[in-house]
Specification:
Blueprint (H helix, E strand, L loop, with lengths): L1 E3 L3 E4 L3 E4 L1 E4 L4 E5 L6 E5 L3 H13 L1 H9 L3 H28 L6 E4 L10 H10 L3 E6 L4 H9 L5 E5 L7 H5 L6 H13 L3 E8 L6 H10 L6 E5 L16 H11 L6 E4 L3
Parallel strand pairs: 7-8, 8-9, 9-10, 10-11, 11-12
Antiparallel strand pairs: 1-4, 2-3, 4-5, 5-6
């Protein structure tokens, strides 16, 4: 699929062309300079970029289109490409560290971002398991096939799944107009009825969550063995500072609602 910018330029002998475009199949960004009409193309070769573009075109095409319209798509993919390269170096450093800590550490938690978006995840987990470590995977549940495959391959020992909100509130929490709730439901159902160790958890934000969220979650995840309410903590490091948290007493109220259907409900993040 090709995403084209709304801004066009009339190129001699070629007609109107978009100033920016990205081809998600070839991972190619094209820029036509509005004054010189010079056309520049850059192709990204990492599988992660291909993976990310295909995921974006399916799950959040509006955001991808916005990056193209704003002329930010090349810088965005370049930054992502650099981070992936740095991450590969970091993997080797981590594996070296884990080899030295065998017998001292028990396990490794794989977090993110969303780890299941990385096409190198299976290989990386295999290397960790070869060292004898237990592995916990943090996920938002958006890629159930990956979670199931990793579980069946014996590459993960526990999953911690983020429950953003009740199903009706997922869109406003994730910023995705139409989130893929079928995938979220599939992952949760796999954990609820499978043999893999797991926990569900929600980071509770005063401006984003209400009692209704937890009443509906109690019905959705009825029978779950473990769930945690995590107190939100505002800081300069979060994407959108300024949100507030609930008091411990208010979180206890949500806890009581969830305890009606969930075996163990804990509260985290309260000093």
């Amino acid at each position: 699929m090709i995403f084209k910018s709304k801004e066009l330029v009339n190129v001699p002998d070629r007609g109107e062309m978009p100033v920016w475009s990205v081809d998600t199949d070839t991972q190619t960004v094209t820029h036509v300079h509005p004054k010189t009409f010079k056309t520049e193309e850059h192709r990204f070769f990492r599988d992660y970029i291909r993976y990310h573009l295909h995921y974006s075109e399916e799950e959040n095409p509006e955001r991808l289109q916005r990056l193209v319209d704003n002329g930010e798509i090349f810088q965005y993919l370049s930054d992502l490409d650099n981070r992936v390269f740095d991450a590969l170096d970091s993997q080797e450093e981590l594996l070296t560290f884990l080899k030295k800590r065998k017998g001292i550490l028990d396990g490794v938690c794989i977090s993110g971002g969303e780890p299941t978006l990385s096409d190198g995840l299976e290989e990386f987990l295999g290397k960790i398991k070869e060292l004898g470590y237990a592995v916990k995977l943090d996920t938002n549940g958006s890629r159930p096939k990956i979670v199931k495959h990793l579980a069946e391959a014996g590459l993960i020992d526990k999953v911690a799944m983020d429950i953003k909100a009740c199903p009706d509130n997922y869109g406003s929490l994730t910023g995705i107009e139409k989130p893929d709730m079928d995938s979220i439901f599939e992952t949760a159902d796999f954990l609820l009825h499978g043999n893999l160790d797991y926990e569900f958890r929600t980071t509770v934000v005063r401006e984003l969550h209400t009692q209704k969220d937890f009443e509906e979650i109690a019905g959705w995840l009825a029978g779950a063995k473990e769930y945690y309410l995590q107190a939100y903590k505002d800081s300069d490091g979060v994407l959108r500072p300024g949100y507030g948290s609930y008091t411990f007493e208010e979180l206890q109220n949500f806890q009581k609602i969830l305890q009606k259907t969930i075996l163990s409900v804990g509260i985290r993040g309260i000093d």
